Amino acid sequence: MNSTPDLIVALDFDSADAARRLVDTLEPGSCRLKVGKALFTRAGPTLVEGWVRDGWDVFLDLKFHDIPNTVAGACRAAADLGVWMVNVHALGGPAMLAAARAAIDEGGAHRPLLTAVTVLTSHDQASLDAVGLQGTPAEAVTRLTGLAVAAGLDGVVCSGQEAARVRAQTGEAFRRVTPGVRPRGSAADDQRRILTPTDAMRAGATDLVVGRPITNAADPARAVESIANEMAVTMQAAADR
Ligand SMILES: O=C(O)c1cc(=O)[nH]c(=O)n1[C@@H]1O[C@H](COP(=O)(O)O)[C@@H](O)[C@H]1O
């Protein structure tokens, strides 16, 4: 198990106000924030820059996937916002990944972590077959992780189900960011490759991304606390072993 797996709260709220209401109850350092396409399209860079100024680590999850030149420009813009992590789709291919890497490395003073989404956690075998990707989801994750490693990225986004495999392929330092995390008893929603926080940590996830189990909870702040507690208990149990 990684020594400090971190909780990333996916702020997939319909409004900036709803997101702010939750973030105002949390402390930077206790978790990280993820701003994805829905909230960013509503609230834009100003919201992100405000949280960065307040000391938050923000994962800007816009999953860039375009021609290399366009993705390079988008990565430069993300770095200029001061975010902690930015991601692209590994499916964009080697040239796109290299352009993203170069854009971040040649950028200004701030250099966010750059990760690549492998196979979305909403994909199962049938939907992977439908888009024409060969092999099982795990095999596709391995292949796409190979592209991310070759381009010098800092990690991949994969499901907890592939975290151990990615660690074996890449070594400990390469990040394994895992969405599709569901506390026991939570609805899977549209996620297909899921694990509980405890199982994702045991599998070697370095960062756990959790959205709806928090944002749809009657008390989102309490839901964050409960997941953080589960993670702390799992860490302690691993340390005691
Ligand atoms: O890159 C991501 O963060 C991501 C990749 C992936 O394969 N699956 C995935 O669910 N995500 C994001 O992780 C979050 C998961 O949210 P919940 O399913 O609500 O916990 C969403 O914001 C997704 O956009």
Order of helices and strands: EHEHEHEHEHHEHEHEHH
Q: Which cofactors or ions or other ligands sit in this model?
A: orotidine-5'-monophosphate
- Poorly predicted residue ranges: none
What is the overall pLDDT average? 95
Sum up the overall morphology in one term: globular
What is the CATH architecture descriptor? Alpha-Beta Barrel
Total DSSP helices: 10
The fourth-level CATH homologous superfamily is Aldolase class I
Distance between the termini: 12 Å
Report the C-alpha radius of gyration, rounded.
17 Å
% residues in beta strands: 15-25%
Tell me the CATH topology: TIM Barrel
Q: What is the spatial order of strands in the main beta sheet?
A: 1-2-3-4-5-6-7-8
Total count of domains: 1
CATH classification class: Alpha Beta
The helicity comes to 40-55%
Largest sheet composition:
8 strands, parallel, barrel
Number of strands: 8
Structural class: alpha/beta
EC number: 4.1.1.23
GO biological process, one term: 'de novo' pyrimidine nucleobase biosynthetic process
Family: Belongs to the OMP decarboxylase family. Type 1 subfamily.
Domain Orotidine 5'-phosphate decarboxylase: 6-227
